[in-house]
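For this section, I looked closely at the sequence of one protein beside the tokens encoding its backbone, which the following lines show:
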Amino acid sequence: MSASENPDSVTRRRLLAVTGGLVGAVAVGGLTGPAWADDRRPGGGRRRWLPGDHHVHSEFSVGYDDSTSPPTPIIGGDAIYPLSVNATHAQQHGLAWIVSTDHGGPLHSKLDAEQRYPSLLEARRSVPRVLQFYGMELDTPAADHSSLIIPKVSTERDILFQLESKFSKRDPFPSDPAFDTEQKMLEALRVMRQLPHKPLLFANHPARSATGLGVYGQDTPAEFRNWNDTAPDIAHGFEGAPGHQAGALNKDGGIDPNGDRGGYGNHPTMGGFDQMTARLGGLWDSLLGEGRRWWITSTSDSHVHYTEGGSDFWPGEYSKTYVYAGWDYADILDGLRSGRIFVVIGDLIDRLDLTVSRTGKAHGQAQGNTATVGETLTLRGHDRDAEVEVRFHVPSTPNAKGERPQVSRVDIITGRVTGPVKDRSADTNPTTKVVARYGPGQWRRDGDDIVVQHTLRDIDGPMYVRVRGTSTDEMEPEPDPKGSDPWADLWFYSNPVFIER
């Protein structure tokens, strides 16, 4: 940089090079969008599967100059991209919605309100084809991080300022140990529960600090149960697949033999998914076995793209959380809260419908006779069987690596719902099992869709059904060794359908 050059101009020029000239561009609407983009209308239009990402960082995830008092925030000191750059890349990779989730530090709530929020408003204007929620990665009291998603209402800035300033454990200056207790987190959830416009919270990378299988770190099973008991309409789940999935890639896309997917340096991810989700009969199944409506998501945790020396993909480049909703802030948030979600990495699929129905010709598809993800099917009278239909679609275009991976197998998984556990630290559900595995020889094609059908027989009590699929031949997702190629090991997961009788 010459002495006469403006540092902001240099930064902008570098970002333009990284993003192919799309930084801040209003004309991004000219990009070819996915099919759902033709149905954007006030009120959301009809519901369909809308891909998104609830964990995206911008330049307002700052560093700090600790030589001053209070410490001086350094814009771009951690994550580096403007919000409009994130939104532009989200659109380029087919996303309909994202959540801006910068994490904090000393007095970050003030920076959020005064600088990040105006930047978000500008990003909404410059990239209108991506719905952009206001939120943050909460420095969670007595735990790791959580995505806190604020409803899009006129008071969204004030809501987040109050929550961050009162409850983010790193916000006080001087630091206050009282902010880093579970009691403080439960107080935060009680406050959120009383708000007229309720936020939504998902725990991020929940087992990243675990030191072994079932040997948890900052996030524990008991904490999740306490959160969900305190605010069941707010604390609703965790990242099934964490971000930082490009951690094993070099700048040129080659493999770093010492890199970790997800930044999980102690106990690794399993097929790119956190052990709390990937472990069959593990913590997620234990929570579902209590009847908890606890959902999983998949995110980028984007800070710095791997081609810039970071460990991240752009939002939507690798990981997508699909929500069944209209193109509308309120309906997308409702879909996330209600569990109308499936998740996928590597664009292995782009649509997944899991439907469970009462059997018999008299039932048909009438309301109450079928249920899909996040919903509950009630069996009545002498009904003891249920029909499971899995319908998915493989993208017709290559993924971001230029490949077209194929689904090699679909697993149908069930578990019993037995009610609250006595041990709040329980992390297993021994009733969980794969009841059927289907490969290309066992499924059928219906137009562009692939369809799997299975009958659950002799249902004698409450249970749940969920589905996963993979591009691999692994019977269960294996721990990811260092240097794992994230594009070679792809999975998708549905959220559950519950069955009662």
Summary: The two ends are 70 Å apart (CA to CA). Residues 1-32 have pLDDT under 50 and may be disordered. Residues 111 and 347 are 36 Å apart (CA to CA). The first helix runs from residue 7 to 19.
